Amino acid sequence: MSMRVPSRSNNSAERAIDAYSLLLCFSQLVIFKLSVAVNLDHARRLRQSMCRERRSVARVRHLVNRSALLGCRAGWRDSVRQSQGACMTSFSTAAQDAKAGAEQSSTRIAFFIAGFSVASWAPLVPYVKQRMGLDEGTLGLLLLCLGVGSILSMPLAGALAARFGCRRLLVCSTLLICLCLPLLATISSLPLLIATLFVFGASMGGVDCTANVQAVIVERNSGKTMMSGFHGLFSLGGIVGAAGVAGLLSLGISPFYSMLVVVVLTLVALAKAAPNLLPYGSPSDGPAFAVPRGVVLFIGLLCFTVFLAEGAMLDWSAVFLTSLRGVEASYAGLGYAVFAVTMTLGRLFGDAIVRRVGSNRVIILGGLCAAGGLAVATLIPVWQAALLGYALVGAGCSNIVPVCYSAVGRQKTMPQSVAIPAITTVGYAGILIGPAAIGFIAHVSSLELAFMIVAVMLLGVAIGGSKLRT
């Protein structure tokens, strides 16, 4: 059997093919390795990039959470501060409102004391006349001492209130009143009676003027219309004082013990009011007293006329009913009673009326109502018309003076510490001068003419109300 020996050329070709195959496999292996390395490097870089992005996201999330937390804390702190501030503001406002309310209540009590104490003296006048054996002329001169004391003390009251405060002056004046009332019920010496009446009048002037100073300050601080209500308490105190003492005397209680009851009640009211009375008065940037000028003089003349009408009702309404309308003397007091009741009611509701219709219209309508009422009482010859007329006079006059005091508190012509005593003095001069002037006119002509002159003066008040800037 013969063997076939490959040729050399074939071996060379096979070796070349094998070498090429090996080279191709090696190149593929290298390419694969390179691709794997590249992919691994790309994967590593991708993984590193993702880790960096993940860390960045985590950092951003942490910052966001931290910012949110800080914002919540800041918002919580702000809300706490705001709530604390709101609480402090509410507490402060509540405290201020409570203080203002206490001052207003004390002012009302001061006006009630003024009306209560002066009216408590009125029922004692017949007892003083009988005890001292005085005639009408001498009694009139004695009562003039009371008015002179009031007129002289009023200009000083404003300056004293500015220096020592409303509280001290009101307390001292009220204590002097409490000292004088029992003395007036027991004194039998004429010189001592004159001195006591003078001190009593001066104390009354001090209480009246200082109460009005406090009322102007309290009303201005509140920003509300309150003066009519304050003066309404004066009128209410007058009714309670006169009726209460008359009732005690009618029960057989002696004048001295009746005055002791008045003193005790007055001291109780003073103890209630004193802690919240103003420890200061109006700023004192002027003289102790000055002649009123400008708008203050104009307001003073309005008050003078209204007070003159009040004096006419007080002293002459009963005489008019008995002498000209045939009313029995036991019922003659109904005239002033009707006047006082309508005046008191008008003042108690006066603040709401002033807020609704305005200060100027209150003066205008009040003057017209009072003038018309006095004309009705004078011109219609029946006693029922007289009582209706007196009621209209009381309603018309009720809020004119309080509005005038409020206007004085807003004017800039004169300091309040001077202006308030000035118009109070001028106004109360109407109570002193008016009844005497009416008596003189009635003596020369007739009481009807005197009343009609007062009615014309009240028409002048209505005209003046349209010119007054309140």
UniProtKB/TrEMBL annotation:
Under CDD domains, the record lists:
MFS_MosC_like
- Keywords per UniProt: Membrane, Transmembrane, Transmembrane helix
Cellular component, GO annotation? membrane
Where does it live in the cell?
Membrane
Topology relative to the membrane, per the entry? Multi-pass membrane protein
Q: Which residues form the Major facilitator superfamily (MFS) profile domain?
A: 103-470
Q: Name one Pfam family in it.
A: MFS_1
Please classify the protein's predominant subcellular localization into one broad category: membrane
Q: Does the keyword Lyase apply?
A: no
Q: Which residues are listed as membrane-spanning?
A: 109-128, 140-162, 169-187, 193-218, 230-250, 256-278, 290-309, 329-350, 362-383, 389-408, 420-443, 449-468
Keyword Transmembrane attributed: yes
Cite the Gene3D superfamilies for this sequence: MFS general substrate transporter like domains
Record InterPro entries: MFS, MFS_dom, MFS_trans_sf, MFS_Transporter
Molecular function (GO) terms for this protein are: transmembrane transporter activity
Official protein name in the record: Transporter
Q: Which organism is it from?
A: Pseudomonas syringae pv. delphinii
Q: What does the record give as the organism's lineage?
A: Bacteria, Pseudomonadati, Pseudomonadota, Gammaproteobacteria, Pseudomonadales
